[in-house]
Amino acid sequence: MSTTKINYHKPAYYSNRELSWIEFNYRVLSEARDKTLPLLERLKFLSITASNLDEFFMIRVASLKDMVNANYTKPDIAGLSPKEQLDQITIKTHELVTIQYNTFNRSFIPQLKQNNIQIITQYEDLDSSQSNYVDQYFQTDVYPVLTPMAVDSSRPFPLIRNKSLNIGALICDKKSSVAYDFATVQVPAVLPRVVQIPSSNPEVTTLILLEQIIEKNINKLFLNYDVVCAYPYRVMRNADLTIDEDEAADLLIEIQKQLKKRQWGEAIKLEVEDKMDKRLLKILRKELRIKEEDIYSVNGPLDLTFLMKIYGLDGFDHLKKPKYIPQPVKSLNHEEGLFTQIRRNDILLFHPYQTFDPVVEFVRQAAKDPNVLAIKQTLYRVSSHSPIIASLAEAAENGKQVSVLVELKARFDEENNIIWAKKLEKAGCHVIYGLVGLKTHSKITLVVRKEEDGIRRYVHLGTGNYNDSTAKLYTDMGLLTCSAPIGEDATAVFNMLSGYSEPLSWNKLTLAPLWLRDKFLELIKRETLHAKNGEKAHIIAKMNSLCDADIIAALYEASNAGVKIELIIRGICCLKVGVESVSENITVRSIVGNFLEHARIFYFYNSGYEEVYMGSADWMPRNLDKRVEILFPVEDENLQTEVKNILDIQLHDTVKAHILKPDGSYEKVDKRGKARLNSQEFFCEQAMKEAHDTPATHDRRTFEPIESDS
Amino acid sequence: MPNTFAAIDVGSNEVSMKIFEVSKKYGIKELDHVRHTIELGSDTYTNGKISHALVNELCQVLQSFTKKMREYQVEDYTACATSALREAVNNLHIIDQIKLTSKLKVSILSNSEQRFLLYKAVALKEQRFNQIIEHGTAIVDVGAGSIQISLFNKGSLITTQNIKLGSLRIREILSTMENQTTNFNNLLEEYITNDLQTFKDFFLSDINLRNIIAVGDNLNDLLRFKKHLEKTEDQKFHSESKESLDRSGFYSLYAKLLSRNSGQISNCLQMSKEQAYLLVPTAMIYYKMFEETKATTMWIPGVTLTDGLVVDYAQKKQKVNPTHDFTLDILNAARNIARRYHCNQSHIKNVEYIALTLFDSLTKLHGLNSRDRLLLQIAVILHNCGEYINLNAGAMNSYHIILSTEIIGLSHTERELIAYLVRFNIGSYPKYEDINNNFDKDTYIKISKLSAIFRIANSMDKSHKQKFSNISVNYRDGQLTIIGTTLEDTTLERGLFEKKAEFFEEVYGIRPQLKQRRS
């Protein structure tokens, strides 16, 4: 170890978060290109890379563009100015898009065809009966909902909606036929993008995209004109929702306003087919004021998210992974009430391997239980027909005190959230619409129950949202407990969320934005100290993203002191591995699989007094500084062992794990000499086995007599 | 099932509520604690009243408290306010508005009640309390509006004094001078020293003070500051236990505190600047207490008024047994006042004996409770303290002395009741309409009943010779006979007795007979 103090904040030791994110999308794309996966699964991954990229542009790229427009030049953690970042992002995303379309054209189209799914990407390829069918479909279903718009001296260029797919056309007046005008029509979002049409071979499923149907019939929209050419295009706009909360008297109204405004932000990306007519492209470029590098000319259909629809086609299960059914939780039975079982032991939940039902059931039983006095919950994103919302409303109707903190600022979910928040309010719940300046990202439910020996509190703490739909796709952990210290803290959390002063002290929970950063730094420093004293020191941390400079610097310092650090980070990672005297003891792996890795788990060896935490926060500045997050300990020894095992399995994954290299790229694990282990599959099998191994004796229909051996 | 109880404290810079579970089996258990910072005191101490905006905010907070009370299905509550409301001229209106908006009945505690409650909480929470007060001990309660110093020795209370020197009040008074000095802390110290000097001269001279028990609003912050230093600077402060600090430990903590401005304090403790602002004056008062005495240890039990309220409730409901005899403390405080005015101790002892014997024998007749008995006893103890000023109009002077002397543990109304009892111990008893006071009719009747007993008892030691040191009371078949065993000539007493018996008959509808037995 060198004696001079190392500046762990040096930009050279960090990766840019946007470029790291693009690396993540490459990893998802690699799943789409993984020939060992069933074909439709691969389609799904390609679709995900497309929707990921859309979101990335709308949030991240848009914000960088804002910075450039505002002449903001402050470099990021890795020393890049906004302009430099944008330049590199542009290069990387163009590459990514090229691979997306190569995969689509070279792999998917032929293989789909082999499997009797035909996608018609150009209407010219239709046979005559199909052609008739399509025209008929256009007349009856499509035409009535189209709104064609022409641009001329009296009609200005229309506003093209964000993310909408449109068809641009050049048209000329049949009488004059001198000049041409620009016309556009939106491909209606109310109709399915993928349309199934008859096929001459009944074995084959033939699909055509809606925009092809419209293109084919475009002349019917402009009857007095000749259509010179028509091509689809798609515009992406700056959509980041920034609200000055100090000025917004009523947050709710403000968000509703913002929602309408969102569609009209500055255009930041234009997608067109590469064969688009140059004159048409020129008009679009000029009217949308878009730069050359922000135009993505692709060789295939725009907006590949439609592939998810193909994934959903009936009758092709042989091209998909068998659907996994979340298993019952091994330590829970159906005979006893949940509260009784929680009183006996803390209960660990591991979704989606184990079912989310106990969480839904927790709220449902609380709503019906006459001894329950109050239910309090934070809700961030919930499903559209959430059984939890229904239970909360029922609880309020049953006369219980129900407080719900609804986070209206949850990205892209605002509209949905406002609807059910109002529903809850109507039912008599006390609804808090978020906190000024902070997003409430913590996932906590508190049930206050009056029992024979006094008040007892039951708490659910989780790493994922209270959303029964995503709980089937996201890997998350949860804890059900009635530990008194945690219950007290949970009460204090809700007191703070209702605007009361902070509690005098906390027992077990640590909250962002006030205490969490310090807590993490403290935990890391403690390992550093142990390592410096020559003791064994070990940190394992699993999360979605790591980009907080202070935390990374603390990890570098720990690594340098000899702490073994194993990170399991699905997405962004601004930490660099293998930097001499900085991060030689750090490894980073990313697991990208069928389920979205979402749990946050933190393990500290602590000289043998091991500590395991879980929580809602990533190691990102926004989680630590601008959100309400909760970190909670797993203290039950058995549960601690379970969580440690989960981390251990993930650290030994040889199938879906990608290892971060010193140059910032990721590579799959070198399988040589290692047993094949797909951690997600392992957990599925384990959960099925556990559910199978512990049959509830009461369910058996036959008796088993015990007889003597002799 | 345990009872749930809410205790609400409308304090000078914070409104807070604690929810408790109270049961015989588990004692007192805190369930919830909510706090809201609102500087009512700052308005009162500078403008004399609380502004409209703050009153609205207060009503809103209290309304949200009632929601919380429903959440725990609270069965009973006590809501009380302290000096900020007590001294605000518009306090009655505020209490009315609170009642209208949240249906909560807030009562304004007299200073002595407030301090007594805190002291009760200390006694219950601090197991070593009885042990600590065997030696000279001062409970120093620094509130936002004033400080209260109660001195104990050999296990019981000696005196208690209130000094209008609270942390917020000091800040408010001196804030205008803050810009005129570069060393605000010196200014502060000068101000505090002056006020404490008088107390020292009067009370601290003949007691060997060993312990300081620190209670009050900002103590928890001081403890947090200590923890913060221990954590960030690895500093150790000398102490015997977690809740205490040695003199040297406190001195170094105090030095650390002075070296930071309120901005830095609020930063490192993550508290509002307003709250941080009060920490230095609070600590300085304790520093001065150390300076002026030989105290070696400071105990910080960390109790709040709400703890006192629940202890009071639990004792009333007989859910917890007091570890310390508080009634004795109240009596001791009263006796100390009597001693200060050189009252005739043997006369008091005798009247006390007769009055209480009568009271206890006649419970069926008067239907009063043990609290009323205590009031009667204190009235007896203090009844002739006015003679210290002037032998004529002694009763009237006693009345005035009692009205302006704090007696720990008594409410203002109770003290007034005692004062009236003493004042009308002699002469004709006034009609209800003639009492220039806001007593209700029930209280008037109560005073009459107590007065009737008091008059009889007092008449029986008119000569101050304690002739009736052994009496028995016989109440049967509508006949009340008091039999005194004495060899002395009791003509004087019996003559007076007859006069007083008339009033007794008026009140109780029965005429007591005094009989003398000479064996």
TrEMBL record, chain A:
Annotated spans, Disordered: 689-710
Q: Where is the active site?
A: 441
Q: Name one GO molecular function term.
A: polyphosphate kinase activity
Q: Does the keyword Repeat apply?
A: no
Q: Which Gene3D superfamilies match?
A: Endonuclease Chain A, Polyphosphate kinase middle domain, Polyphosphate kinase N-terminal domain
Which reaction is this enzyme known to catalyze?
A: [phosphate](n) + ATP = [phosphate](n+1) + ADP
Domain Polyphosphate kinase middle, chain residue ranges per copy: 130-310
- For binding Mg(2+), which residues are annotated in this chain's numbering? 381, 411
Entry-linked CDD domains: PLDc_PaPPK1_C1_like, PLDc_PaPPK1_C2_like
Which residue ranges have biased composition labelled Basic and acidic residues? 689-704
- Job of this protein: Catalyzes the reversible transfer of the terminal phosphate of ATP to form a long-chain polyphosphate (polyP).
Q: Which family does it belong to?
A: Belongs to the polyphosphate kinase 1 (PPK1) family.
Q: What is this protein called?
A: Polyphosphate kinase
What species is given as this protein's source? Anaerosporobacter mobilis DSM 15930
Q: Which gene encodes it?
A: ppk
UniProtKB/TrEMBL annotation, chain B:
Looking up PANTHER family in the UniProt record yields: EXOPOLYPHOSPHATASE, RETROGRADE REGULATION PROTEIN 2
Q: Which organism is it from?
A: Anaerosporobacter mobilis DSM 15930
Protein family membership: Belongs to the GppA/Ppx family.
Report the residue ranges that make up the Ppx/GppA phosphatase C-terminal domain in this protein. 334-475
InterPro entries from the entry? ATPase_NBD, GppA/Ppx_hydrolase, Ppx_GppA_C, Ppx_GppA_N
Signal peptide positions on this chain? none
Name-wise, this protein is Exopolyphosphatase / guanosine-5'-triphosphate,3'-diphosphate pyrophosphatase
Upper lineage ranks?
Bacteria, Bacillati, Bacillota, Clostridia, Lachnospirales
Instruction: Tell me the ranges covered by the Ppx/GppA phosphatase N-terminal domain, including all copies.
Output: 28-316
GO molecular-function term, one example from the UniProt record: pyrophosphatase activity
